[in-house]
Design a protein that fits this description.
- It contains 6 helices and 5 strands; from the N terminus they run αβαβαβαββαα.
- It is elongated and about 105 Å long.
- With 173 residues, it is of the alpha+beta class.
- It has 2 domains: 123 residues, Ribosomal protein L10, N-terminal RNA-binding domain (Alpha-Beta Plaits); 47 residues.
- Helix 1 packs across helix 3 and helix 4 crosses helix 5.
- A 5-stranded antiparallel sheet has the order 2-3-1-4-5.
């Protein structure tokens, strides 16, 4: 790669890959500039959505050890480099694609593992991190309440038995 501009572009892509927890590859053929801006705004909080050059992206991905995009870098490509919640980004892409069917999710990677299109869709169907943490906390609280009542039941049963024995002794006396 003799061109210094291309080398700089590859370095920038490598940095984006290294700083992201996940990435989702899309094809945006047929989308207008305004639609792409809308998409960028919808994922801005959790991702950087960038139009990429296929060959340079393949080189950068290989250099950082990501093989999830091999054979998928065809046509006009853009990648959502996720730095926040991957579920929120997948949902935003799914919701945008409902209104704009020209956006095609080709795949991605998360935590170093490749994701195909269906896995990205499954990721979008998950509840957000906050909701899942809330459910987990609720489950812990429910389990603790159940354990507390289980531990308290024998104590109250013993107290009732002792009270009945005391009452019986008073009657006998």
């Amino acid at each position: 790669m003799a061109n210094p501009e291309k080398a700089a572009a590859v370095d920038e892509l490598k940095e984006l890959f290294n700083n992201s927890t996940a990435a989702v590859l899309t094809e945006y053929r047929g989308l207008s500039v305004g639609q792409l801006q809308t998409l960028r705004r919808s994922v801005r909080e959790n991702a950087n959505y960038a139009v990429v050059k296929n060959t340079l992206t393949e080189i950068a991905a290989k250099e950082v050890g990501i093989d999830a995009f091999e054979g998928k870098m065809t046509g006009p490509s853009a990648i959502a480099f996720v730095h926040g919640d991957p579920v929120d980004v997948a949902k935003a892409l799914r919701d945008f694609a409902k209104d704009n069917p020209q956006l095609i999710v080709k795949g991605g990677y998360m935590d170093g593992k490749p994701l195909d299109e269906t896995e990205v869709k499954k990721l979008a169907d998950l509840e957000s991190r906050e909701v899942l943490l809330g459910k987990l906390a609720g489950a812990f609280i429910g389990a603790q309440s159940k354990a507390a009542s289980t531990f308290q039941a024998p104590i109250s049963k013993i107290a009732r038995t002792v009270e009945a024995l005391r009452a019986k002794q008073e009657e006998a006396a």
